[in-house]
């Protein structure tokens, strides 16, 4: 997928001031192309991007820690943990009602086109949430966070295959380093006293494999979201972000509810609530807090996808990598072993490799007068100015 070159003949003062960041084939007319120019990225745009990044970091960190707290305090329902990851989606209807209507001329794809997308993506999200729920129970939260960082490596591949993201040496370095970091954790599992003491034999490796599988599927989901906005939705307003997030997560929540009923785990919920370590009120607050945190993180991540790219959104989530293990050591008593420390440093180095690549793309875009995301998708290396 290559973006078309557009000849600009519109004076800068006539550009409408509306939410920007369209990148893709749809809406590639003069107005959409003009919004993609570096000049259209003012202070407000960058502040909104930074705000979304902050929400992703806080939401993902809090949701992961609360998910582990649920298991540590006596929770045991995998399907309930799965439901919390998408069950907060009805709250988005309130935001949708308070959000201004779409501007005149905003693309309105037919329902017949969007319903299959919602069903497909929602089902995929539901089973990905289930894999994460199992993995979080079978792994210490610090190890879980580090292995989950491989989603950046997987997303580099899916972004290349689906979103035409340029695969440079620095991004390849990020993929290799993050993969080795995850492998190091798997090989060094015997040194993790938490896993050896608290889990049945073989559960640690199962959690490791499930986390890798869930990370790969999550990377695919992010790329599919990006291509959905480019080729199906067209519009990139906040209302469309809320619509897509709410509809796909309602489907994911329906998958979790069906699993909860079919597995019979719903019968154990009252007893689980009564036996929860800190009481019924804390049980409900934990599930509610987890649900809200996941929705906040998901909406902000989807906004980053529509503003920049799925890979950028994934990299932002990876920044929380050093935060979760540190909080897990303080809150849950996880051991910060030498293996984890080395893996964390390797993963952080993989993140920095991508950040530096983004910096190079930004310099090249500034030199050539094009959008840095479009530059990242262009083939070949550019010679940067001194």
From TrEMBL:
Report the subcellular localization. Answer: Membrane
Q: Which UniProt keywords apply?
A: Membrane, Transmembrane, Transmembrane helix, Transport
Keyword Transmembrane part of the UniProt annotation? yes
Please verify whether the record's keywords include Membrane: yes
Q: Which GO terms describe its cellular component?
A: membrane
Residue intervals passing through the bilayer: 45-67, 138-155, 167-185, 205-228, 240-263, 283-304, 311-332, 338-356
Q: Which family does it belong to?
A: Belongs to the purine permeases (TC 2.A.7.14) family.
What's this protein's name? Probable purine permease
Q: From what organism does this protein derive? A: Hordeum vulgare subsp. vulgare (Domesticated barley)
């Amino acid at each position: 997928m290559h973006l078309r070159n557009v000849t600009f003949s519109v004076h800068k003062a006539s550009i409408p001031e509306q939410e920007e960041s369209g990148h893709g084939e749809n809406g590639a007319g003069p107005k959409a192309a003009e919004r993609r120019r570096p000049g259209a990225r003012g202070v407000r745009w960058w502040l909104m991007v930074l705000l979304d990044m902050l929400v992703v970091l806080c939401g993902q960190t809090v949701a992961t820690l609360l998910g582990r707290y649920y298991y540590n305090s006596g929770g045991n329902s995998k399907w309930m943990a799965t439901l919390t990851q998408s069950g907060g989606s009805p709250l988005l209807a309130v935001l949708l009602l308070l959000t201004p209507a779409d501007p005149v001329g905003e693309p309105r794809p037919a329902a017949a086109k969007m319903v299959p997308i919602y069903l497909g993506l929602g089902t995929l999200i539901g089973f990905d949430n289930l894999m994460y729920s199992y993995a979080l129970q079978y792994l210490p939260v610090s190890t879980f966070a580090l292995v989950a960082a491989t989603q950046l490596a997987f997303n580099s591949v899916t972004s290349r295959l689906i979103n035409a993201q340029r695969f440079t040496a620095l991004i390849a370095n990020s993929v290799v380093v993050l993969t080795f970091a995850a492998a190091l954790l798997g090989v060094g599992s015997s040194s993790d006293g938490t896993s050896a003491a608290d889990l049945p034999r073989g559960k640690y490796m199962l959690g490791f494999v499930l986390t890798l599988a869930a990370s790969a599927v999550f990377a695919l989901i992010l790329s599919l979201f990006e291509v959905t906005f480019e080729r199906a939705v067209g519009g990139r307003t906040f209302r469309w972000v809320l619509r897509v997030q709410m509809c796909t997560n309602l489907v994911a929540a329906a998958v979790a509810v069906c699993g909860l009923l079919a597995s019979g785990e719903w019968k154990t919920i009252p007893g689980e609530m009564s036996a929860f370590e800190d009481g019924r009120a804390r049980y409900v607050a934990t599930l509610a807090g987890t649900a809200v945190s996941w929705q906040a993180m998901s909406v902000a991540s989807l906004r980053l996808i529509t503003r920049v790219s799925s890979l950028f959104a994934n990299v932002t989530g990876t920044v929380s990598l050093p935060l979760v293990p540190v909080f897990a050591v303080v809150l849950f008593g996880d051991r910060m072993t030498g293996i984890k420390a080395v893996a964390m440093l390797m993963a952080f180095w993989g993140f920095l490799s991508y950040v530096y690549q983004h910096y190079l793309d930004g310099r090249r875009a500034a030199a050539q007068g094009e959008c840095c995301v479009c530059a990242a998708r262009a083939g070949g290396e550019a010679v940067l100015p001194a």
